[in-house]
Amino acid sequence: MRALLWLVTTQGASMSDPPAAPASEQEIEAVIAELEQYRRRIIDDALHIAKLAKVPKQVTMGHLEKHPEIHRIDAMLTALRAGEPFALPASTAE
Q1: pLDDT of residue 16
Q2: Distance CA 37, CA 41 (A)
Q3: Is 46 within 8 Å of 63 (Cβ atoms)?
């Protein structure tokens, strides 16, 4: 995730802050891969726990569709793939 911080614009950055260096194609691809891996891990972990609790997969998938972290990851992936800057939530940027 450290590489992700190089790829984002920060909210509230002052005019005296030096501009962030643009990320290389390799850095962007690495961050995309990390985000996809993290997203997959969230889903796999939820499905595993749901299976242990004998919750139907369809119910679990319904909850995952509303999962706020998955929505944030999807937004970051969309922005990275489109080459758009984005701001990390305050809790993630620390």
Answers
A1: 55
A2: 6
A3: yes
